[in-house]
């Protein structure tokens, strides 16, 4: 309720920055409120995405997609280096 009231004030403030922020809150309100309801974020998946992007930059583009998948598993902790197999959970 407080968030909705703040958004309404921001949108009617006449200040471009507050109006833009109010629209952003409207777009993301579902995700913001989800945190308070379920204490769940997308931080873990964002972390994996960041690792994959960094690996891709470091590799200058692997030509073998299977090797790239293997490197992703290795960097994301899904490979057991001693057995050289995928972990099953």
From TrEMBL:
Pfam families cross-referenced by the UniProt entry: DDE_Tnp_ISL3 (PF01610)
Xref: InterPro entries: Transpos_ISL3, Transposase_DDE
Record-annotated Transposase IS204/IS1001/IS1096/IS1165 DDE domain positions: 3-72
PANTHER family named in the record: TRANSPOSASE FOR INSERTION SEQUENCE ELEMENT IS1557 (PTHR33498)
Full protein name: Transposase IS204/IS1001/IS1096/IS1165 DDE domain-containing protein
């Amino acid at each position: 309720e407080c968030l909705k009231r703040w958004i309404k004030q921001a949108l009617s403030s006449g200040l471009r920055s507050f109006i833009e922020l109010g629209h952003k809150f409207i777009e993301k309100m579902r995700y913001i409120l989800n945190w308070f309801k379920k204490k769940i974020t997308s931080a873990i998946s964002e972390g994996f995405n960041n690792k994959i992007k960094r690996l891709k930059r470091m590799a200058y583009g692997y030509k073998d997609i299977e090797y790239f998948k293997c490197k992703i598993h290795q960097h994301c902790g899904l490979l057991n280096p001693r057995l050289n197999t995928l972990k099953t959970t």
